[in-house]
Amino acid sequence: MADYDVVIIGAGAAGLTLAHRLGQINDRRDPPLRTAVLEPPPGPHTPPRRTWCFWEAGPGPWDHLLAASWEDLSVIGPDGAEHRSPAGPYAYKMLRSTDVDAHVRAAAGAAVEFRPLFVRDTEDGPEHATVRALAPGGEHLRLTARWVFDSRPPVRPRAVAPACSSTSGDGSSA
Ligand SMILES: Cc1cc2nc3c(=O)[nH]c(=O)nc-3n(C[C@H](O)[C@H](O)[C@H](O)COP(=O)(O)OP(=O)(O)OC[C@H]3O[C@@H](n4cnc5c(N)ncnc54)[C@H](O)[C@@H]3O)c2cc1C
Q1: Contact, 101 vs 16, CB < 8 A?
Q2: Residue of 37, 50, 100 with the most ligand 1 atoms within 8 Å of its CB, for mutation
Q3: Could you report the per-residue pLDDT of 126-147, keeping only the tens digit for each?
């Protein structure tokens, strides 16, 4: 049997939202989905505090956590005049990542475990997927799960300087 039903890599907007939904599903599910959320411990890999904004019509499930909300659109023209109009039925809503993180951790329930791990790689398999991770003390861990949701940002290829060579008149290269 796999260690977990679901492993979520990354506790950002996507990972926290999924963990929250799974926690809600677990309230109606027996047995619950054993879930692990893996996020590096505080340190060089910790992303900066950030805000997440979205449009929504009417009240929504995150309203109690909102840091700000705007119901008007305002455009300032080249003459400096402000043109304002209501955006209804929509409002532009802003959440702070720290507030979402604290709320999801508190509400997720016992079956959702938050683990301070830095994921190195994942491998798919016929029975389960394997996640290889580093613990804060440098210990290498191997977790298995029926499903893995990997929200790590894609690695951008490094810019490689074009190979440069010049040939002088005598055939030697520099
Ligand atoms: C400068 C900037 C400003 C932005 N401003 C806004 C804004 O005003 N409003 C808005 O709505 N959106 C904004 N965004 C976009 C918003 O931040 C992203 O759309 C959103 O965070 C994406 O969610 P995500 O879960 O995909 O990624 P993230 O939120 O980045 O989550 C990825 C998670 O994976 C974790 N992780 C990474 N590597 C590993 C690893 N090896 N092992 C384990 N975990 C790992 C990270 O620590 C992170 O918690 C901004 C983005 C940037 C860069």
Answers
A1: yes
A2: 50
A3: 999 999 999 999 999 999 999 9
CA of 50 to the centre of ligand 1 (A): 8
Sorted by where each starts, the structural domains of the chain and their CATH numbers stand as 4-150 (3.50.50.60)
Please write the tens of the pLDDT for every residue from 77-94: 999 999 999 999 999 999
How close is the Cα of 99 to the center of ligand 1, in Å? 15
Cα(54) to centroid(ligand 1), Å: 14
HSE-up (13 A, CA, CB side) for residue 51: 11
CB atoms within 10 A of CB 20: 19
The pTM of the full predicted model, rounded to 2 decimals, is 0.87
